[in-house]
Each structure stands twice: as C-alpha cells, then as structure tokens.
Amino acid sequence: MWPGLIGWQLFNTKREVKRFNRRAHAIALRPAEPGLEPRREEFIETEVLEVAPLPGLIDRDGEPIDAQVIEREVRKQEAELRKKKPRVLGRQRILAQRFDDRPSKSHHSWRPLCHASTTEIWHACLARVRAFRVRFAAASAKFRAGRLDAIFPDWSHRPSTYVRGLLGAT
Fold first, then answer.
1. Alpha-carbon torsion angle 125, 129, 134, 136, nearest 10
2. What's the whole-model pTM score?
3. What does the domain layout of the chain look like in residue ranges?
C-alpha cells in the first residue's frame, strides 16, 4: 500500500546534513593574509533535518495517523456524500460521455446579447447581431456553393478549405 503523505516521516524521521557556511568563510577570508587563510573544514556545519508531521495527520495523542485510517475516513465521507447527492457523475460516466455533448436540460438562462443601459441601445445591438448573422449566412452559402473567395464579416472565421477537400466538396 502506498504510504501517502506520512511515508516521508516513516522512512526519513531524522537526517543529518552537512553544509558549508560560505558567508562565514568569506568574512573570515577578508582579514586573512595570503597563505594564512582559514581551513575550509572549520566552516562545515552539521544540521539535523526533521520533517514535522502535517497538523491534519496527527491524532490527539500526538502520534501520526495511519494511512489506512485516513483511507477509511475518506471512504466513509464518500459514502455520506453519495447518500446526499446520489447523482454525482463519477469517473466512469464522465468518460462515457461524448466530449462535445451538451446537457439536454439546462437550468441556466441564455446569455444576453449585450449589457445595455437603455432599450434603444439594446435594440441597436440586436440589429447589429441580426445584420451580422445575415452577412455570415450569405457568405457561408457562397462558400458552400464553391466560391472560395466569399468575404465573411469581420470577427468571424470561414471554414477551412482543407476540411472542405476532405469532405469531398469542390
């Protein structure tokens, strides 16, 4: 079983590390005369590294919690969640769905065309959207008819000619 977060504590409770104190060595080198530099061994320090257990992984007695206990608690919480919300999709159902599917029923309202402060501005925005759709539909009809030089309205993308070639269009 993978030991999880407490594995580091189990396998490396204390560890001695030696490090060279460069700053103290550089300070000692400044006043030293050539040939009388301090020995590097005098600036090697030994430190003991101890990993403190995470607060959430310590029981009331101060002992680390076993990974099996944590796994049992997680399973219990998941079971309670399934009782409250039985329609959670889960990994299998998510992978079974098509990536481009939409929900059949949505409780969300449509996104507004524009955020206008007056109805006149909103109607002007609606007119621009409708004009854009008419221009795009006309250009798309020409393009599908084989006129690759059809001009699409600004801020729109025409279909790729490469894709049309794959679909058998001329």
1. 140
2. 0.33
3. 4-96, 121-166
